[in-house]
Amino acid sequence: MSSILSSNQSARGTAEGAYERGEPWFDDGNVILQAESRRFRVYRGALALNSPVFASSFPRNRAPQVPSSTAVYRLQDRPVDLQHFLTAIFVPGYYEKKLRKDYDATISILRLSTKYQVQYFRQDIIAQLVLAYPTTLAGWDKRSKLQLYPPNAAKRAVDIVRLARENNIRALLPAALYQCCENPLEVILDGIPQPDSTPTRLSAEDEEICILGRERIVEAFRSRLFSERQLVSSGPGFLASRHVPCDSARLRWLYKDDIWEMAFGYDWFKLLQKECPTLGPGVCPTCQKAFVATFERARALIWENLPGYFGLPDWSVLRAELDEILKE
Fold first, then answer.
1. Paired residues of 44 in beta bridges
2. What Å distances lie between residue 250 and 226, 244, 259, 278, CA to CA?
3. Contact status, residue 208 vs residue 202, Cβ threshold 8 Å
4. Closest CA relative to residue 139, chosen from 151, 128, 125, 150
5. For the chain, how long is the longest CA-to-CA vector?
6. Where are the alpha helices (DSSP H) in the chain?
7. CA-CA distance, 325 to 123, in Å (whole number)?
8. Rounded distance, CA 171 to CA 169, Å?
9. I need a labelling partner for 93 at 20 to 30 A (CA). Which of 109, 157, 178, 184 fits?
């Protein structure tokens, strides 16, 4: 675990040079952590108690000793990440406040709680993110009605894809990649808008995964909803009715601009929308009911196969991984 220290770090060293004092800084603290040029003075015992990584990195004294100087540890972390992480550990109430109000601070805490194995932060934040990027269709349908923590999480799909890759949280990826796919192709290529920030691009690898997955999903959805065999009464969705007079009405409905865009449009991508379109006048209630059932089956099938469209394992594997994370 000593890899958290820089290669030239001495446990008792206090390197010279300009630095700025960060918060938290406790005058009676017995260890200093330095990220870039910023230092934080905290308590070694509390760090060791919360993090097995720090516990294994600090030297063990066989007998109590009074150090001649405060040990300085240089970490390869961003100062802003370390500030949020340490403040969450040492300042009561800070974590709860940031989780509910500050997306970036929450992600900083997640990033370092993963690196330094502070499980209670990691598990709690991941449990909240799963509400925004769920593993079930019911969860996806419900998320717009939830008060999600941290705020804006449901709009930060690009960040979540990156975060899931960096921290091995693959259960977040299918929903996050799907949300990226809801953007037109040129937006995916040029950068997806983020709340309160400039547009952000996926990595080159995830950009390709997203574009190919998008095409697979559209093809699967349209083949199940708009193929000829689905739109005439001889199709499997209408075996209960076989109302041939409804066929022409269904085909007229298909020529409506918004429906044509759904069936054949280049950039239409709302495959998981919950509201089923109405077939229109001239279609009997039985045929409309059959179409609704076909629509709902198509949604369910898209979700069931969602991970595979992006080259990921089945939901059963991803949910098992998530269960392991949340019970560690």
1. none
2. 11, 10, 11, 10
3. no
4. 128
5. 93
6. 44-50, 52-57, 79-90, 94-101, 103-115, 119-132, 137-142, 157-167, 173-181, 185-190, 204-225, 228-231, 245-254, 257-264, 285-304, 306-309, 315-327
7. 7
8. 6
9. 157
Alpha-carbon gap, residue 245 to 240, rounded angstroms: 14
Question: What sign does the CA torsion over 144, 148, 151, 155 have?
Answer: negative
Digit-coded pLDDT (tens) for 138-175? 999 998 888 888 888 888 999 999 999 999 999 999 99
φ, ψ of residue 4 in degrees (nearest 5): -70, -15
**Euclidean distance between CA atoms 157 and 197, whole angstroms:** 13
Give me 126's structure tokens. Answer: 């991941």
Residues of the chain with CATH 3.30.710: 1-58+68-87
How many whole angstroms separate alpha carbon 4 and alpha carbon 218? 45
Q: In whole angstroms, give the CA distance from residue 198 to residue 194.
A: 6
* Mean pLDDT within 262-275: 82
- The pLDDT score that the predictor gives to residue 71 is 86
The residue with tokens 């280049």 is 266
Tell whether the model's pLDDT for residue 1 goes beyond 80: no
| pLDDT tens-digit series, residues 77-130 | 999 999 999 999 999 999 998 888 899 999 999 999 999 999 999 999 999 999
Stated as kind and residue range, the H or E segment containing 149 is none
The Cα–Cα gap between 242 and 252 comes to 18
pLDDT for 261 beyond 90: no
- CATH topology assigned to domain 1-58+68-87: Potassium Channel Kv1.1; Chain A (3.30.710)
Residue 313: CB atoms within 10 Å = 12
